[in-house]
Structure formats: C-alpha cells, structure tokens
Design brief:
Two copies of one chain form a homodimer. With about 350 residues, chain A is an alpha/beta fold. Chain A has 14 helices and eleven strands. In chain A, strands 5, 6, 7, 8, 9, 10 and 11 form a seven-stranded mixed beta sheet that branches. In chain A, strands 2-1-3-4 form a four-stranded parallel beta sheet, with helices on both faces. Chain A binds a DNA duplex (30 and 30 nucleotides) through helix 2 and helix 4.
Chain lengths: ~350, ~350
DNA sequence: AGCCATTTGAGGTACGTGCCTCAGATTTTC
DNA sequence: GAAAATCTGAGGCACGTACCTCAAATGGCT
C-alpha cells in the first residue's frame, strides 16, 4: 500500500495536523519539525495522492488562456482545442477558458491581465508580444500567486519560465533547409513574407532561415522581409512589387502563422512551375494548399499539444510538482501532402 | 455547482443506490427506471466526477504495455517513456508496467497474454504482429473485461479498435515523396531495407513508398525489399550484393524501426555524394546520423505521445467515456537535422 | 519560577463516488 | 390470490486529503 499522510505522521512522530501544515506550507511549524517531516517523506517514500487532494480542495483548477482578440485560422484552431480541453477536463475538475487581449494597445492588454484575480484563476497561459507592459503584468500576476506560462509567443526576459511553443529559430532553419533541398540545383531569389517584423517570433524565424541559406546555399539569395499587416490589399501590393522587381524568384517563404490571406492573394498571380512555397501552421487553408500542390511544405506546431502541455505545466506548478521536460517539448512538425 | 449523484437521484426521483446501479451498469434495475435516470442525466447535465470516483475505487488504474522481448533503440525509447509515465502517474493513481512477449513464438506470446487477469490489469496496450493466436488472445482478454489497444503495430482484423500509432502507408508515402524531392532531377535505383517483410507494418510502408514513386517519378526505380533480420552480418551481406548488382543506387530507404545496425554497417561502404538516405524513428543512432549528414530525413512517431495516448484511451474506456479522436491521432513526424 | 508566545495535537467535517447490507415495495408467476 | 422473484430505498463506511477549531504542550524570556 502507498503510504498516506497518516503513515507519514506516524513515521515523522508528529500529528496529522502538523503534516498538513508542512505539506501545504502553512506557518507555525519549527524548522526542526519541518525537517523531520521531510526526512520522513524521503524515508518512507511518501507521495501525496493528488486525486484525494483535488477532491478535498473543493474547487479544481481553473486555467485561462490569454489570447489576442484578433486572429485568423491558426488562432481559431487553438480556440477549438481549448474548448475541447475544457469539456474533457470537467470530469477531472479542470477548467480552461479564454481571455481576450487587445492586440494593438499593450497598456490595455496589461490592464486586462492585472484585473485577473487568484480567486478566479490558478494559472494563465499567455500569448502576447514581448512588451514591457506585458512583462510587468506577468511579474505582478506571479506575485499575486497566479502561475503564468508564455504560450506560443515567447517571453524571453522572464527567466526560468518554461515556454510552451517551438524554438522559432530552429523552425526557420527547418524551413530554410527544406526550401533549399526542394529547389535542388536551382538558384534564384527567395521571397519572405510575414505579417509584421515587430514580433520576436518573426525575427527568430528569419534568423534561422537565413543562417541555413547563407551558409550552405550560395546560389540562393533571400530578399528583405515583406510585411503584409494581415491586409489583403497590402499583401497584393507588396507581392506585386516584389515579383516586378525580381525576375528570378524561385522560392516563397510565408513566415507568419496565418497563411490564408497570402495564399488567396497568390492565386491571382501566375504560378511558375518549380517554384517552392513553404508556410507555417496547419490550418484549413494550408491543408488544402498542400493537397492542391500550391505549397510544398508546412512547418507547424500541434495546437492540441500546445494546449495540453500548457495545462499540464500550470497544474504541476500549482501542486508544486516538477514536469517531465522531455515530454513537454513541443515538436517542430513538417507537413507535406502525404502526412497531413 | 456541478450536479452530483445526489442531485441526480433527486432529479430522477430515485434513490442514490439506484443511481449507483445505473451509472455502474449493475444488474437489477428495470429498464423503465434506467431510462428515467438517463433522462435526468441529460436534463440536469450530470457528469460523473472522475476524481471522486477514482478515489472511491480504492485502486486506481493499472495498465500494461505488452512489448516484444527483443528490440533495440526504438523499443528502448518506448520503455523509457513508459517508466516515466509510471512514475508521473503514481500521484494520480495510474500505474504503467511492461509485459514482455516472446517475439518468435506466437503461441507462447498468446499464452502470456491469456494469463493476464482483470485483477491485475485494467487495460493492455499490445505491440505484436498480427497473428491468429494473438488475435484470439485479444478477443478473450476483452471478454474477461480487460481493455486492449493495439500499440504501434496495428491489428486490423479487430474491428472498431482504435489504434495507437501511425498510418504506415502514409508514412511510407511520406518517405517516398521526400526521397524523390531530395533527389531532384537525379534518377536511379532506390534500395529498401527492413528487418522482415513478415510484418504488416513493413508491407504497408513499402506500399505507400512505391505508390508515390511509381506514380510521380518514372526516373526512379525501387528495388525489391532486402531483409536484414536484425543481424549485422546478414545486413552487410545483402547490402554488399545489392551495391554490386546495381551501379546507380541513388537512394536508400531504411524502412524498419531499428536503424542502428544498418547505419553502422553502411559506414563500411563508400558514401557516394548525393545519395539520399531516409530512416524511421528517432533514436540516438538516427539523431546522430542526421547531425552527421549520414541520413537526410527521419520519419518518426513520438514515443511519449504513443504512451500517453494509449493510457488516455484505456482509461477513457475503463470509465466508459469517449476520447477526442482529434487529440489522439499520432502524427507522422518528419525530422531533419534542423528540427531534431 | 513564572509568563507569554509559539508550536503541536486531537478531533472534527467535508469533498463525491463506490460498494455493501438489509428491509420493504413492487411486479411477476403459478 | 398467494408465493416467489425482482426491484428499490435508506443508510452507512470508505477512500486520502484539505481545512478548521480549540486545548495543551513546549520553549524562550525575564
């Protein structure tokens, strides 16, 4: 039989009440006694039964996903997974809901975060650009006792933070390598398009992409990044200009997470045979484009894993357990038409 | 507040005991009463609190992974993940252990399975070739009330069965497409090596691989599959013969899950520039080979996801809940040096 | 030695369900 | 219509922990 708190009390030579005080970090226990309890924990191999603990807590865990208010298909995929988790989690007293953040004004976003109380949330997974306002809001949330996890978008300045998402530099490098290998002998220019270069994610992807191409493929040259600002007209315009300026465009790297608009716009341009196109994130649009041969590969991260991993991490933190790092690493996936 | 069994009893106009009988499928309740309870479940939106249920059951869930007795690195990875899950699961009253099956004699393997009692295991995930003996053993286990899930190796004949693993035909097709695209304009012969063509998995991979190459790449021709039987000497011999017989070998497809021996043997042959090699499963050997440029891509399935998914599915079945199919689909991963 | 603050013990209730017993009610069968 | 078979209700104990209260013991201090 697994040792219980009762066994632990006996082994440590203290009462159940004291064991409870130590295990839950309550005040009013002498250091000597605390040590004795920990010693006994080691000695008899006590491990708290989380099932019983959760039940006794009365309320399970409630986690929030703070996401940008505006987005497209990729955001939609994430929302879907969160709702699925919420439904599936009810039976295990886990709740997952969505909080929307202003994606234009960091101050408003930070204010939204600062209104979140530990009464309402045990943990928050945050997908937001790395601004000083957001960073401060995160620090203050932690002080209030709410666990926080950067989600999809990294917050590098907050040290220690385990991040739920992919290494964007490696993702960019992966795209670069595939681009070059798919192009084979062919040389020429590569066009890179994203929504905005403001975000660290875009910068890192570009960095990774370039590092591979410039090191190993001198016949290819990567053009300056074009910014679409998620606007169809602007997308059409920058693409038109780029195609006019460079006659030898051999590859197209859609670096942002929302490829729907660029893909639609691209259909109005001629499709030169042999052009290689690579996009990010598996969405209805990129799936269809892969099937139709409009794009050659998709670099993606699994939204379901993102959500589940974030919840596992926040829960483990609440119960101050550690997580298996090996199991929480989000993979950089490569999709082609055959393994969609 | 979420409705409890007590609320359900009141809503259905029956007693707690009857609710319990219905929820746990015990005998001795009139159909009319059963229906009334189910109606009330729908009406008030009752959902059993699994946390409390697990606690009350006294014993949590115990799952077994029936794996072949012999294997190499890939099997080792899976074992590692199972042990990790076992440790991590203790706090949630989940146990995962390993049962070893004879991989030469299906009768012995079936006998091992037939000795497993519902007292000992709530569910078994099985990785074994699809033989009549194994199939019968699985059917009998289900009858005894042990949940079973085919694991990594599919058992197609058992209908309904949700399978934990990848679609091997698609995996083969993925390998084929990458092989062809990496080869570019180059034509020639492709050598396919596996441990044994006895297994359905190998057949399906080969099928998928061929379908892509023969349909889209007439300049490539896929040679008959070579069998290594996991034996270094035999591997060296069949490779030597193949290299001697075909001067134009452009690609190498290591189709089996254990690439260590073939990779080691290959080092004793000259390495023609431009040759493309693709293997399966991420292991220390394939990782290193990717880094060293000995192979170009690895098609893999994440052992951690395999194990966790199998446990989620078995648990859901025990609690007769349904699983989110979308979340349990195992991805066919593509690894290159950049996204290891 | 005596006082006060701090630390500890004993015991209780609660969480929501599983599982058990036994008596009483209802239906079926002859 | 009575006996037998089947169904239902009421109640209780258990799981292992959280969280609470109050009294008692202990320790440090003057």
């Amino acid at each position: 039989m697994r040792p219980t708190t009762k066994d632990l009390a006996k082994a440590a030579g203290v009462s159940l009440a004291t064991v409870d005080r130590v295990l839950n970090g309550r005040a009013g226990v002498r250091k000597k006694t605390v040590d004795a309890v920990y010693e006994a924990i080691e000695r008899i191999g006590f491990e708290r039964n989380q099932v019983a603990a959760t039940l006794a807590r009365q309320r399970g865990y409630r986690f929030g996903f703070a996401l940008p208010r505006h987005g497209d298909e990729f955001l939609e995929e994430i929302l879907k997974r969160i709702h699925e988790m919420d439904r599936a989690g009810r039976a295990e007293m886990l709740q997952a809901d969505v909080i929307r953040l202003d994606d234009q004004d960091p101050h408003r976003a930070a204010r939204t975060l600062s209104r979140l109380s530990p009464e309402d949330y045990d943990g928050i997974a945050i997908m937001a650009p790395e601004t000083p306002q957001i960073r401060d809001a995160l620090v203050r949330m932690q002080e209030r006792g709410i666990q926080t996890v950067p989600f999809v978008s990294n917050q590098k300045r907050l040290d220690d933070q385990t991040f739920v998402g992919i290494d964007n530099k490696a993702a960019g490098a992966t795209a670069g390598r595939l681009m070059a290998r798919f192009l084979g002998q062919r040389g020429g220019a590569i066009l890179v398009l994203t929504e905005s270069m403001q975000s660290r994610d875009s910068l890192e992807r570009r960095l990774g992409f370039d590092s591979v191409i410039t090191r190993d493929y001198p016949a290819l040259r990567v053009l300056p990044t074009l910014e679409s600002h998620a606007d169809p007209l602007r997308t059409a315009q920058v693409l038109r200009n780029a195609f006019a300026a460079h006659g030898d465009i051999a590859g197209l790297y859609l670096m942002g997470p929302e490829a729907r608009i660029p893909l639609e716009v691209l259909r109005s341009f001629p499709f030169p045979p042999g052009r290689v196109t690579i996009a990010h994130e598996r969405t209805p649009s990129t799936e269809q484009a892969l099937r139709d041969g409009e794009i050659d590969a998709v670099i993606s991260q699994d939204p379901g894993h993102l959500v589940r991993s974030a919840m596992r991490i926040m829960r483990a933190r609440c119960e101050n357990r550690s997580t298996l790092a090996s199991q929480e690493r989000i993979r950089i996936e490569v999709l082609i038409a055959e393994n969609i």
